[in-house]
Amino acid sequence: MIEVCRGSSRDPGRSSSGTVATGYRIGDYAIDAPEGVRYEGSPFVLITHAHCDHICGLTQYNSGYGCSEFAAVAITKPLEEATLCTHLGFEPPRRPPEKILHEGDMLEGDGFSIEVIETPGHSKGSLCFYVPDLKTAFTGDTVFGGQALPSCTLPTSEPGKLVDSYEKLASYEIEKICPGHGGPFSSKHYVESLIPMVADFI
Ligand SMILES: [Zn+2]
């Protein structure tokens, strides 16, 4: 049901540096718009956060998209400190979202639903998307695999809020995580294990 869609950067050096994100397709929705990802048809794209490697595919196709209120401002103005587009050589999409996403919003798919969870920390306006029917969370850069913590020193990072975001995620029954870089992994109690790590880090 979940298709993993990896981007391919125009710049091979950038790809190997890990700045090309992973996109996912689930029914009529896609999670993030990494450069180089080609989604079949026109899924509605749910953006986890405004960093360039998660949004710049929006310049390549016309799918509608939804994002947080802050990400909408960051993408449309655009705000360099929030997208890092120029810094990393991406072209900002600039066009506005069709939908602003808020905590608790439920998006209905064909046989599944997607819940919006606000998870600031890595960046302002970060969202995670949870599919209760699959016990799966799409986490963008809020959660990586391998006990790695996300960067919290970027211009719009809010490190003090990351513990709260992890505690919120830990209240969900998550068995699988689809992170914004790399591929899906099994995750029972994984987010809980990050809480003491991030508390020490901050
Ligand atoms: Zn990011």
Characterization of the model:
The strands form 2 sheets. The chain has a 6-stranded mixed beta sheet with strand order 1-2-3-4-5-6. Strands 7-8-9-10-11-12 form a 6-stranded mixed beta sheet, with no helix packed on it. The N and C termini lie far apart (37 Å). α6 runs antiparallel to α7. It contains 7 helices and 12 strands. A hairpin with a 2-residue loop joins β2 (22-26) and β3. The chain has a single domain (2-201), classed as Ribonuclease Z/Hydroxyacylglutathione hydrolase-like (Metallo-beta-lactamase, Chain A), CATH 3.60.15. The model has no long low-confidence stretch (mean pLDDT 91). The protein is of the alpha/beta class. Zinc ion binds at residues 49, 51, 122-123, 141.
Structural class: alpha/beta
Main beta sheet, described? Answer: 6 strands, mixed
Give the averaged pLDDT, no decimals. Answer: 91
Overall 3D shape: globular
Sheet with most strands: strand arrangement: 1-2-3-4-5-6
**How many β-strand stretches?**
12
**Bound small molecules, deduplicated:** zinc ion
CATH topology tier name: Metallo-beta-lactamase, Chain A
DSSP helical segment count: 7
CATH superfamily: Ribonuclease Z/Hydroxyacylglutathione hydrolase-like
The CATH architecture comes to 4-Layer Sandwich
What is the first-to-last residue Cα distance? 37 Å
